[in-house]
Amino acid sequence: MVVLGSGLAGAAPAAASGASGTAPVMAASADPTDPTDGPCAYTPTPGEPAARPVPLPPDPRRTPSRGTVEVMLRTNLGPIPLVLDRVEAPCTVQSFLHLVRHRFYHQTICHRLTAYPTLKVLQCGDPSGTGSGGPGYRYADELPTDLPPAPTDPTGERRVYARGVLAMANAGPDTNGSQFFLVYADSALRPNYSIFGTVAQSGLETLDEVAAGGVAPTPEDPAPVDGAPALTTTIKTTHIRR
């Protein structure tokens, strides 16, 4: 999956939940491609198997939709604390916490850094490190509706994804999975990416260090603005703080 294709587009909304990390109970005759029975309808993707084994998230009838949850990403370059917002994206938060509990993000690299004038994000969440891996399931968007118009876009179609925003990457409508992106400077995007939290100040300092390192050059492009970070950024561990 990707942001803007297989980069940011790979990001999808996350939802917080205090439920256990076990897969929902399904009838023995259930089709393995059927979605879960709850309101989030997490749907298996047999054609896109999980980059790392993980069951479907729990999907309770009453998805937790109040309050915030703190999650810590510990990277080789420093901590990136996140504050997940259940109100804005309950199903996204629920899925993200499920993946954290199952150590889906442990020892994974952030595979994409963008440094365009209007798109400045770090994208993570694919254990394969290729930008095409996911959790073996997808779920619907929980899109923002109150973002201000991007002043750089005369068409009025793009909105401001502000510095510190945490959002899901995707490959098109309702294709959220495990990939997410962290905005290190105000960016202009169509409001097609679920926002499910924010990056705390110490995390922004880590992001600034990654951004200052720039995008890794290649033989084809000695000064790229989109690609792997020059400073390899590895999520070593993740845990739920509260």
Walkthrough of the structure:
This protein is of the alpha+beta class. It has a single domain (2-15, 73-240), classed as Beta Barrel (Cyclophilin), CATH 2.40.100.10. Helix content is 10%, strand content 25%. The protein has 2 helices and 16 strands. Strand 4 and strand 5 (78-85) form a beta hairpin. The longest helix is centred in the C-terminal third of the chain and has 13 residues, at 201-213. It is globular and about 50 Å long.
What are its keywords?
242 residues, alpha+beta, Cyclophilin, two-stranded antiparallel ribbon, 2 helices, globular
Summarize the structure.
By secondary structure, the chain is an alpha+beta fold. The protein has two helices and 16 strands. It has one domain: Cyclophilin-like (Cyclophilin).
CATH uppermost class? Mainly Beta
Tell me what portion of residues adopts beta-strand conformation. Answer: 25-35%
Residue runs with pLDDT of under 50 for 5 or more positions: 9-29
Rg over alpha carbons: 17 Å
GO molecular function, one term: peptidyl-prolyl cis-trans isomerase activity
Region (Disordered): 12-66
Biased composition (Low complexity): 12-24
Domain PPIase cyclophilin-type: 75-240
Helix-strand layout with pairing:
Blueprint: E1 2-3, E2 8-9, E3 43-44, E4 68-75, E5 78-85, H1 90-101, E6 108-109, E7 112-114, E8 121-124, E9 137-138, E10 159-161, E11 165-168, E12 180-183, E13 187-189, E14 195-199, H2 201-213, E15 226-227, E16 234-240
